[in-house]
Amino acid sequence: MKIFNKIFIFSLAAVVCSACLGDLNTKPLNKTDFTSENAYENPSSYLNALAYINGYYMLVGQDDPGSNDLGFSDSGQSEFLRQWFNLNEMTCDALKCVWGDSYLTDLQNDSWGAGTNDAMVAVYTRAVKAIALVNEFLLQTEESKLDARGQSDLKPTIAGYRAEARFHRAMFFYVLMDEFGNPPFPMPENIGGENPRRIERAELFQWLEDELLDLASDGSAMPAKGAVPYPRPTKGSVWALLSRMYLNAEVYTGTARWEDAKKASKKVIDMGYSIHTPYSDLFRQDNTETGAAAEEFIFAVAYDRVLCQSWGGTTTFTSASLNEDANQALGAAFGLAKINGENWAGYHVPNDYVARFELQGVEWGNENNPFGYNRETSDKRAFFSNFKNKETFDPSAMATGWFCWKFNGMNSDNTLAQYDGTAGQWKLSSTDMPIFRLAEMYLNYAEADARLNGGEVVDADAKAYVKKLRDRAGVATPSDITLDWLLDERAREFMWEGHRRVDLIRYGYFTDMNYPWTLKGGILSGKVAIPSHMTIFPIIQSDLSANSNLKQNPGY
User: Fold this and answer.
1) Which residue, 26, 86, 115, 311, has most beta carbons within 10 Å?
2) For residue 475, is it within any domain?
3) Tens-place pLDDT, residues 113-131
């Protein structure tokens, strides 16, 4: 496996994270079952437990990827990363879907309410459960526990594991803060005890900042860049999360932190990550094996079609994006039968979003061009196809508008990822998904500089960072780099990477009727305002019912 050699699934006793997860205070059914009382007798179990935490972004249960622990009828739709992606892209202008699932319709029409929505349930519940896993791990790795087990010699190693686990806990708390505003705040003392208290968004921001700065400090046991194998988190990951938080601090706390965003970004930039060329390698099936991911990704979710299978994540991003006609036509362009193993044929990119790319020679109806534009002379970050599609997107019809193949079934040499290199094509994906990459630090730095200087980039380093990205994309860099231009550049650079909702909220455009997009507010033209309370999602109803410390977010 890409993270560790294997994932070892724990059956942890006395894990109570938030009432929405139910009572997990169960005893083992037989003597071979692991509990928190005996699971750590073997020293290797600590790394195995950390592996499970590291993998929880994409794991859906303790068995095969077709069964899940949340009771979803479709296990792939219960995955954390897939639904986090949907919350941040489908609610905006980057992604629409023609499948007709009610929860997806609510997301893409911005029509959700306080009722159950599968994406919100999956993200909220898995984030809280992941935090509980970390809290249990921290309890079981206290120095007194190690001493009692006769494992005092493990303390230096375990200190690093604990720091990594705390970073994961911070990541999941960040998601709760960003998506749900005022979530529960489960800590180790809540395990087997009282329900967690509710925490206000600004207070959670402060807790996260303190926690992350402690992990980033010189005396911290958090591994430095290169000290642990990719894609385990390092101090680079810590500073990257701080960079993103500081860039959005005004949204979370009411107080802008542009200078801090700039400094945090620079911390990461100076650690030695590199911009990988070509851009397409970052999202190919062998992005681990070629080193492209480790070169530019600061923290990532590692998928493996053999050892860590998932019907969510990059499998979804690949399979859901094309129909059979487009798949075959694109395959022919690369000398292949097709580029993807499956055709779920649901995901589309609205025409107005595609228009933000500098595409040359756009045309519709030319069956000799599977792309629908001159790909050689266009922005190299554009991976679109309108093959045999009608130009006007119809949310109830497949063959309309644009498809996207940024994620696909090919390796970096344009060959198919196959069984043993010879047999049938895989349906599951091994493409690692970046959570933070160096390009974000470049654009965070540039935007923070523009915010500090009247809306235009003046810092020479910031201009150079932007030029690096533009050079890789094969397009010219403008002489004047403004805030609105940077927003469009982020759309181009980070398409389908989970940034869009956060960016539009920070710019004040998410709710603004003067910033329309396809199906915004359920209107095809998108010329409508969205209520301001929808910049955060509702607390899920089952948790409100079970935990009296919580209350619903305003407006729901």
Assistant:
1) 86
2) no
3) 999 999 999 999 999 999 9
